[in-house]
Write a structure and sequence with these properties.
alpha/beta, 5 strands, 5 helices, 14% strand, five-stranded parallel beta sheet, globular
Length: 113
Amino acid sequence: MSESLTPIEIDCLSVKQKLDAKEPFKFIDCREFDEYERVKIEGAELVPMSELAELVGELEPFKNSPLIIHCHHGGRSLRVARWLRNQGFVHAQSMAGGIDKWAQEIDMSLPRY
């Protein structure tokens, strides 16, 4: 089995740099709807972890593209990234620290919860 050369985790600053540079990647928020309604990172699309198995087909066009997943603190997104890799999404990555770390390091205007 060949392992992806893409690291399983990516830090918030690297994600911010990719967004600023308009690099092409799919940015996924795997939190639940109520969390997403409370606070979100612009550009991230909600695909709740609880619905991922049903919605994975919608991600099929991005199978060979960079996918960056975030959650609240990084635990769920790491599980989602690993699951997606097992489904063949070899470039899936988890944003370490999640939106909480983003609110501390990148956009201090975002509310923390």
